[in-house]
C-alpha cells in the first residue's frame, strides 16, 4: 500500500477533475492533496460562497439564510462555478472543481467525475468541532436536495454518471488519495471507451 510520503510524488495529468459529495465526505482533504500533487488550481463551491458573502457584505450565516428564501444565491453560485468549468473545460490543463453539483455543472467538460460519500454517522463524527452542528448538517442536506430538484430538476441520488464512487469510511485518507491517484496514473485516453452522458444543466 502506498505510504503518505510516496503518494505525494508529482502526478502527471492534464485531466479536468470534479469532486462532489455531502458534508464530511472528505472532499476538501482529497482535493487539497490532489491539487498539491498535480500542481494545479483547485476551486471549491465553499470558496465561491464566501466570495458571494463578501461581495454582498454578509456573513456566511446571513447568506445561507438568504439562500433558503429564494433561488438568487444558489443560481449566482452555480453560474460562477459553471463559468469556471467552461473556462477550464477547454484549457487542456489539469484543474479540480469541488462542489455538490460540480459533476453536473461541468457536464461533458469534465474528464473525471468523482463522488465521495460515507455513512451519516461517520460524517457526523468528522464534522464534530466544526461550526456546523449535526442538526444543521441534516437540514442543509435535505434543503439543498429539495432546492436542486426544484431549480434544475436534479436528483442528487442519481450518481450513475460518476466515474468513481468511493465510500471514504472504508479507507483512510491516505488510501482514498492512493485510489484516486491510481485512477489518474492508470488512465490511458486511447483505451477510454466513453463516459456516461451527463444531462445538460441550465443555470
From TrEMBL:
CDD domains: CMPK. SUPFAM superfamilies: P-loop containing nucleoside triphosphate hydrolases. It catalyses: dCMP + ATP = dCDP + ADP; CMP + ATP = CDP + ADP. Its EC number is 2.7.4.25. It holds the Pfam family AAA_18. GO terms for cellular component: cytoplasm. It comes from the Archaea. ATP binds at residues 21-29. It is found in: Cytoplasm. Keywords: ATP-binding, Cytoplasm, Kinase, Nucleotide-binding, Transferase. One of its GO terms (molecular function) is CMP kinase activity. InterPro entries: Cyt_kin_arch, Cytidylate_kinase_dom, P-loop_NTPase. Belongs to the cytidylate kinase family. Type 2 subfamily. NCBIfam families: cyt_kin_arch. This is Cytidylate kinase. It comes from Natronolimnobius baerhuensis.
